[in-house]
């Protein structure tokens, strides 16, 4: 089922079996991820969050963005100026006003990409809903004098 002429609302994601630990999407997460919704600006947990780690798809767990590529655009949503290779797909939305971004693995809606704003040297802004993301903290470095 497509929403507003967009991509299918969801794609089948293979269930990895009994080891699967993902919790089901909430109704709000479904509205955003499966039906191309948007959370209110400045409401998401990752807007002002800048810890080192990896941001993954909330629906399927695929790694999408590195914290090193996150920046504060002042727009009210988490923003990145790059994605992990082959992790994010761009889909031109109807009317050509915005370009939607989705998870390349499951097709879940992430947000939109903007080009030419000159906010970073890469000149890209992946504007993402916090509810479309999960965060995995980077492992702490082992100190040189730590016992082995």
From TrEMBL:
Regions that span the bilayer: none
Domain of life the protein comes from: Bacteria
EC number: 1.8.4.12
Cleaved signal peptide residues: none
First-tier enzyme category under EC: oxidoreductase
Sorted UniProt keywords: Metal-binding, Oxidoreductase, Zinc
CC cofactor: Zn(2+)
UniProt GO BP: protein repair; response to oxidative stress
Protein's name in the database: peptide-methionine (R)-S-oxide reductase
Lineage of producing organism: Bacteria, Pseudomonadati, Verrucomicrobiota, Verrucomicrobiia, Verrucomicrobiales
């Amino acid at each position: 089922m497509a929403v507003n002429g967009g991509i299918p609302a969801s794609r089948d994601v293979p269930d990895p079996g009994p080891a699967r630990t993902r919790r089901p999407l909430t109704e709000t997460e479904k509205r955003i991820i499966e039906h191309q919704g948007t959370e209110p600006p400045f409401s998401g947990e990752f807007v002002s969050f800048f810890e080192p780690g990896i941001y993954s798809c909330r629906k399927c767990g695929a790694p999408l963005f590195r914290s090193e590529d996150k920046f504060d655009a002042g727009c009210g949503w988490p923003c990145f100026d790059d994605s992990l290779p082959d992790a994010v797909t761009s889909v031109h939305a109807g009317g050509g006003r915005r370009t939607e971004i989705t998870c390349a693995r499951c097709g879940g809606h992430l947000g939109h990409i903007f080009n030419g704003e000159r906010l970073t040297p890469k000149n890209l802004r992946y504007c993402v809903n916090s509810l479309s993301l999960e965060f995995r903290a980077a492992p702490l470095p082992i100190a040189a004098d730590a016992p082995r």
